[in-house]
């Protein structure tokens, strides 16, 4: 026993000597992007694991950002869909300072001309038009191009008599386009009214975050309003509301759970159940 203990002490001392001589300045760091820190629980999750789990934390089920292409890939039958109006290009109608530079940066970062995709395909064998906002591009703030693509997508669904699904995620109206941005609120709502008058289904799917003119227009007008867990949805942000009202806000204010409790939405759906839930709704109501 004494000999074994002595040997263990020698091994420990040898390891300490090794650590003392080791030059850790040359040790390679973990490459960026290999792990992602969950904003919900703080755990470091392998990024590949998150992607396989639709960017939902396996520990606390916090829903992280998922880009528009990944969402559409998981949604459609056979992962197949067709994109429309891709080459509508964002301009600078008011010559707003530094706006062109911000557009160029967003284009290089995302490979998109603006923060939205209009698509058509099959979900549970039902032909459907799906529009997805992508907040990597200037928080998917609604300028003239986003408003035009949403309107064209709605009008295509109406003309073809297809159900319509819009995934909202936006900071609101795009201030760099002024009145041109605000006009998109009434334009998209008028297109939805014609879709409604045709007796066609519109499902609004709210994701984190959805604010401003987007909330005040098409995103809250669904025949069925769905939200992801923990999504923040509102007009002004909670800090602005609190400072304006001069009062403390209720716990969970503007979260999807708060909206469900107060009758603003119909369902909260985990991302893993997104396709199954929409498939059932389209089978029942899609026509």
From TrEMBL:
<dbReference type="GO" id="GO:0008270">
    <property type="term" value="F:zinc ion binding"/>
</dbReference>
<dbReference type="GO" id="GO:0006633">
    <property type="term" value="P:fatty acid biosynthetic process"/>
</dbReference>
<dbReference type="GO" id="GO:0016743">
    <property type="term" value="F:carboxyl- or carbamoyltransferase activity"/>
</dbReference>
<keyword id="KW-0443">Lipid metabolism</keyword>
<dbReference type="InterPro" id="IPR029045">
    <property type="entry name" value="ClpP/crotonase-like_dom_sf"/>
</dbReference>
<dbReference type="Pfam" id="PF17848">
    <property type="entry name" value="Zn_ribbon_ACC"/>
</dbReference>
<comment type="subunit">
    <text>Acetyl-CoA carboxylase is a heterohexamer composed of biotin carboxyl carrier protein (AccB), biotin carboxylase (AccC) and two subunits each of ACCase subunit alpha (AccA) and ACCase subunit beta (AccD).</text>
</comment>
<keyword id="KW-0863">Zinc-finger</keyword>
<feature type="binding site">
    <location>
        <position position="57"/>
    </location>
    <ligand>
        <name>Zn(2+)</name>
    </ligand>
</feature>
<comment type="function">
    <text>Component of the acetyl coenzyme A carboxylase (ACC) complex. Biotin carboxylase (BC) catalyzes the carboxylation of biotin on its carrier protein (BCCP) and then the CO(2) group is transferred by the transcarboxylase to acetyl-CoA to form malonyl-CoA.</text>
</comment>
<keyword id="KW-0276">Fatty acid metabolism</keyword>
<dbReference type="GO" id="GO:2001295">
    <property type="term" value="P:malonyl-CoA biosynthetic process"/>
</dbReference>
<feature type="domain" description="CoA carboxyltransferase N-terminal">
    <location>
        <begin position="34"/>
        <end position="287"/>
    </location>
</feature>
<comment type="similarity">
    <text>Belongs to the AccD/PCCB family.</text>
</comment>
<feature type="binding site">
    <location>
        <position position="38"/>
    </location>
    <ligand>
        <name>Zn(2+)</name>
    </ligand>
</feature>
<keyword id="KW-0275">Fatty acid biosynthesis</keyword>
<keyword id="KW-0862">Zinc</keyword>
<keyword id="KW-0479">Metal-binding</keyword>
<keyword id="KW-0963">Cytoplasm</keyword>
<dbReference type="Pfam" id="PF01039">
    <property type="entry name" value="Carboxyl_trans"/>
</dbReference>
<dbReference type="GO" id="GO:0005524">
    <property type="term" value="F:ATP binding"/>
</dbReference>
<feature type="binding site">
    <location>
        <position position="41"/>
    </location>
    <ligand>
        <name>Zn(2+)</name>
    </ligand>
</feature>
<dbReference type="GO" id="GO:0003989">
    <property type="term" value="F:acetyl-CoA carboxylase activity"/>
</dbReference>
<dbReference type="InterPro" id="IPR034733">
    <property type="entry name" value="AcCoA_carboxyl_beta"/>
</dbReference>
<comment type="pathway">
    <text>Lipid metabolism; malonyl-CoA biosynthesis; malonyl-CoA from acetyl-CoA: step 1/1.</text>
</comment>
<dbReference type="InterPro" id="IPR000438">
    <property type="entry name" value="Acetyl_CoA_COase_Trfase_b_su"/>
</dbReference>
<keyword id="KW-0808">Transferase</keyword>
<dbReference type="InterPro" id="IPR011762">
    <property type="entry name" value="COA_CT_N"/>
</dbReference>
<feature type="zinc finger region" description="C4-type">
    <location>
        <begin position="38"/>
        <end position="60"/>
    </location>
</feature>
<keyword id="KW-0547">Nucleotide-binding</keyword>
<keyword id="KW-0067">ATP-binding</keyword>
<feature type="binding site">
    <location>
        <position position="60"/>
    </location>
    <ligand>
        <name>Zn(2+)</name>
    </ligand>
</feature>
<dbReference type="InterPro" id="IPR041010">
    <property type="entry name" value="Znf-ACC"/>
</dbReference>
<dbReference type="GO" id="GO:0009317">
    <property type="term" value="C:acetyl-CoA carboxylase complex"/>
</dbReference>
<protein>
    <recommendedName>
        <fullName>Acetyl-coenzyme A carboxylase carboxyl transferase subunit beta</fullName>
        <ecNumber>2.1.3.15</ecNumber>
    </recommendedName>
</protein>
<keyword id="KW-0444">Lipid biosynthesis</keyword>
């Amino acid at each position: 026993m004494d000999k074994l203990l002595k040997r263990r002490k020698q091994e420990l001392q040898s390891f300490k000597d090794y650590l003392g001589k080791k030059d850790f300045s040359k040790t390679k760091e973990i490459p960026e992007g290999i792990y992602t820190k969950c904003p919900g629980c703080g755990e470091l999750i392998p990024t590949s694991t998150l992607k396989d789990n639709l960017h939902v934390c396996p520990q606390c089920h916090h829903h992280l950002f998922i880009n528009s292409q990944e969402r559409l890939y998981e949604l459609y039958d056979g992962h197949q869909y067709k994109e429309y109006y891709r080459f509508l290009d964002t301009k600078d109608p008011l010559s707003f300072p530094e706006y062109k530079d911000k557009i160029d940066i967003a284009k290089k970062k995302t490979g998109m001309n603006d923060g939205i995709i209009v698509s058509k395909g099959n979900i549970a064998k039902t032909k459907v038009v799906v529009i997805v906002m992508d907040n990597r591009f200037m928080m998917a703030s609604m300028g003239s191009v986003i408003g035009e693509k949403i309107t064209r997508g709605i009008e295509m669904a109406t003309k073809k008599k297809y159900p319509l699904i819009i995934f909202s995620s936006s900071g609101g109206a795009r201030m760099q386009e002024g009145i041109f941005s605000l006009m998109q609120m009434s334009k998209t709502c008028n297109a939805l009214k014609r879709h409604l008058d045709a007796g066609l289904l519109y499902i609004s799917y709210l994701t984190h975050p959805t604010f401003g003119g987007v909330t005040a227009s098409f995103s809250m007008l669904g025949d069925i309003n769905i939200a992801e867990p923990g999504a923040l949805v509102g007009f002004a942000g909670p800090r602005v509301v609190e400072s304006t009202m001069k009062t403390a806000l209720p716990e969970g204010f503007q979260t999807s759970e708060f909206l469900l409790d107060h009758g603003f939405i119909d369902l909260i759906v985990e991302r893993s159940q997104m396709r199954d839930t929409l498939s059932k709704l389209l089978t029942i109501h899609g026509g």
